[in-house]
């Protein structure tokens, strides 16, 4: 399984998760887990996704989600999971 | 499973605290490019570099995008050119042709610097090595991204004082040859003692003869992350402070290890080492000086600076070493004056002097680095400074270096502008008492007694 972490940071508005999920479903990316919280007054959402069967390159997903974030007015990052597991797990 | 706070912490480090991988450096052996005709050798060099490193920059950029971590520099190191060119270069001008081949090849593949226009003369110079050293003013002024280093001593061999004396003149000549640009050529040259074979950082990186055909080395960074972590340690004791630095260094290094392994896998080139160094940039909040000040100094250079740096350096290594399978290079905190905002300020206010920096180099990884001095400093004084640093390295069995810029036409009170990551620096005063009779004696300083371990 190839996991990635998608994070959304910014002002909470209607439909953020819906729009991200629509994009993911259109590209065969499976959502494994979603959590959200408020950090320093900002809406923080994290998704763990499986992109093993994605019909697009990982780099294109990163770019597309970044552009989607700009449309909505939030910051969306999509990163491969290893950077987090390497840093936080021994 | 990962939690949102961990993910937030990592991204905070990248976005707010300037966590980055400072460099992916591909080391390439050029020993098989040697030959009898300098033009053929130049062509061999160009062809090998542009073949091996053709995907280096694109791969680095893909890794940046996939993991969301900036990789600031993509660089190349090569076998010391004095060895590669020994069979074909009959003059300094011939060596300059090889410098141009390096410059062209590096630009072709899109890296930002290439290192290895170097000579290892820790005991004595061969005629070829002396020719390369004498070619430096022309080579460094005519090329843009070629870096050079000369290893003038080691714990095992002592110090080659003939080379040290020569370098005083050469550094002045490089400064003059690049006088229109605040003597920028000197930024691309460093004199070493105990130079490591696998240093990924510039200007001192070269691909040592002990290395394989090609290798990927990675230099990590992150003074901003350490600085931010130290906010939590304010007012706490040394145990807490040291634990905080170690934990942070571990996290930073793990990212470097990930990037190194990934680059190695994608490029099909073996992974060499991670260089565990805190490398500052002139950006606000990316400063080793700031870390030292948060440890408790009013300004870097104050009494206590050497002790604070020794502790910082040690904790960075202790935290980082477990995070990586192979650690090498320089590995320690860098203190390049012009590249560190808080050090620039401390040098400007007079709190940080060359003598204090010299003391600091006894306990950290490199040496007198990116220090601008008056353009009228004598060659003998520069040689004396190099000899002092080399002696510290030789006796303490550590790497030391001198990257000093006698800025042509400028004096104390002026400042030099090097641009980008190289930053800017106030011209620092130098002790002007003479040492000519010392540096011109000729010969070499013998290896110290504790080097005889056999």
Report on this model:
- The complex is a heterodimer of chains A (90) and B (454).
- Chain A is an alpha+beta fold.
- Chain A has one domain (3-88): 2-Layer Sandwich (Alpha-Beta Plaits).
- Helices cover 37% and strands 38% of the residues of chain A.
- Chain A has three helices and four strands.
- Chain A has a four-stranded antiparallel β-sheet, sandwiched between helices.
- In chain A, 33% of the residues are buried.
- The model of chain A has no long low-confidence stretch (mean pLDDT 93).
- Chain B has 454 residues and is an alpha/beta fold.
- Chain B has a single domain (1-441), classed as Anaerobic Ribonucleotide-triphosphate Reductase Large Chain (Alpha-Beta Barrel), CATH 3.20.70.20.
- In chain B, α14 links the parallel β10 (368-374) and β11.
Give the helices and strands of chain B as they follow along the chain: HEHHEHHEEHEEHEEHHEHHHHEHEEEHE
Q: State the CATH superfamily name of chain A.
A: ACT domain
Number of domains of chain B: 1
H/E series of chain A: EHEEHEH
* Coarse structural class of chain B: alpha/beta
Low-confidence stretches of chain B: none
Count of DSSP-assigned helices of chain B: 15
Compute the gyration radius of chain B: what is it?
21 Å
Shape of chain B: globular
**What's the total number of strands of chain B?**
14
CATH fold naming of chain A: Alpha-Beta Plaits
CATH architecture of chain A: 2-Layer Sandwich
Strand order, sheet with most strands of chain A:
2-3-1-4
Helix content of chain A: 25-40%
Q: Could you give a short account of the major beta sheet of chain B?
A: 12 strands, mixed
- The geometry of chain A reads as globular
Calculate the terminal CA-CA distance of chain B, rounded to whole Å: 52 Å
InterPro entries (chain B): UPF0210
Family (chain B): Belongs to the UPF0210 family.
Subunit structure (chain B): Homodimer.
Protein name (chain B): UPF0210 protein KIH73_06155
């Amino acid at each position: 399984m190839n996991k990635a972490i998608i994070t959304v940071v910014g002002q909470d508005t209607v439909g953020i998760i819906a729009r991200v999920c629509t994009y993911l479903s259109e590209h065969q990316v499976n959502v494994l887990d979603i959590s959200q919280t408020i950090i320093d007054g900002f809406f923080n959402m994290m998704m763990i996704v499986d992109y093993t069967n994605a019909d697009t390159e990982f780099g294109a997903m990163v770019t597309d989600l970044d552009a989607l974030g700009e449309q909505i007015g939030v910051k969306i990052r999509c990163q491969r999971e290893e950077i987090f597991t390497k840093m936080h797990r021994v | 499973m990962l939690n949102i706070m961990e993910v937030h912490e990592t991204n905070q480090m990248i976005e707010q605290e300037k966590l980055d991988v400072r460099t992916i450096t591909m080391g390439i052996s050029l020993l098989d490019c040697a030959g009898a005709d300098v033009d053929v050798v130049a062509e061999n060099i160009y062809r090998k570099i542009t073949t091996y490193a053709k995907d280096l920059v694109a791969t680095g950029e893909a890794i940046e995008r996939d993991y969301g971590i900036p990789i600031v520099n993509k660089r190349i190191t090569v076998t010391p050119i004095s060895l590669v060119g020994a069979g074909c270069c009959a003059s300094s001008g011939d060596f300059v042709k090889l410098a141009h081949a390096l410059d062209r090849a590096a630009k072709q593949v899109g890296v930002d610097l290439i290192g290895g226009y170097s000579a290892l003369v820790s005991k004595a110079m061969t005629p070829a090595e002396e020719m390369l050293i004498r070619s430096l003013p022309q080579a460094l002024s005519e090329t843009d991204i070629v870096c050079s280093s000369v290893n003038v001593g080691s714990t095992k061999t002592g110090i080659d004082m003939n080379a040290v004396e020569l370098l005083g003149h050469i550094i002045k000549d490089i400064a003059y040859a690049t006088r229109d640009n605040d003597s920028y050529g000197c930024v691309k040259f460093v004199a070493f003692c105990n130079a490591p074979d696998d240093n990924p950082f510039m200007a001192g990186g070269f691909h040592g003869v002990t290395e394989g055909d090609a290798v990927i080395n990675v230099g990590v960074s992150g003074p901003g992350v350490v600085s931010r972590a130290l906010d939590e340690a304010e007012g706490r004791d040394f145990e807490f402070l040291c634990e905080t630095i170690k934990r942070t260094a571990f996290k930073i290094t793990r990212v470097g290890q990930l990037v190194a392994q990934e680059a190695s896998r994608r490029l099909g080139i073996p992974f060499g080492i991670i260089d565990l160094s805190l490398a500052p940039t002139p950006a606000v909040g990316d400063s080793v000086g700031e870390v030292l000040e948060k440890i408790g100094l009013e300004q870097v250079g104050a009494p206590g600076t050497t002790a604070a740096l020794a502790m910082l350096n040690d904790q960075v290594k202790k935290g980082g070493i477990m995070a990586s399978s192979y650690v090498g290079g320089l590995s320690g905190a860098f203190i390049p004056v012009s590249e560190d905002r808080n050090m620039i300020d401390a040098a400007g206010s007079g709190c940080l002097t060359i003598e204090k920096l010299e003391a600091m180099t006894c306990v950290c990884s490199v040496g007198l680095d990116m220090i601008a001095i008056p353009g009228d400093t004598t060659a003998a004084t520069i040689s004396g400074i190099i000899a002092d640093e080399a002696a510290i390295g030789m006796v303490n069995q550590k790497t030391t270096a001198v990257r000093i810029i006698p800025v042509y036409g400028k004096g104390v009170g002026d400042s030099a502008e090097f641009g980008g990551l190289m930053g800017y620096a106030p011209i620092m005063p130098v002790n002007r008492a003479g040492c000519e009779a010392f540096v011109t004696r000729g010969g070499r300083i013998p290896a110290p007694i504790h080097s005889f371990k056999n």
